[in-house]
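Here's what a typical entry looks like (TMEM205-like domain-containing protein):
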Amino acid sequence: MPLRSLALRVFCLLGLSVWMGGFTFYSAVVIPVLHESLGSLDTGFVTQEVTDYLNYIGVGVVLVWWAAAWVERGEGPARVRAVRLLFLAATTLILLGLIALHRVMDGRLETGSLRGFYPLHRAYLIASTVQWIVNLALMTALLVPSRLPEKGS
């Protein structure tokens, strides 16, 4: 494997680890503590800012992944590259949807009215969870060797 591909893969894994790790830790640990300490509305304002940063990190990570896909476009088995591209396209589309949905939810929070907020929030949580699973699959697909053994070997 060329050094540039190895370096890009390391950056891909590190980036995805930071993004997924941040999301997982915030969701599993920070949000419950905030709810106990601040209540729902104040937790929403903190989460509003944190998710902006998580989305910024996500944009940077998917850009690195797309760069790696471009650099490795002719390397390895076509079916492995196709699976990686499928997962990468899925996480990119989900991220764009989450960013758009986040702006709508921000508007609801800024007006002080939570009317219609919770169905949007539920959709955001579901999409984020699906994205987390897709990212796990993407990470796994990156770890598939560039050269698979041929059948019968």
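DSSP finds four helices and no strands in the chain.

More examples are in the samples folder.
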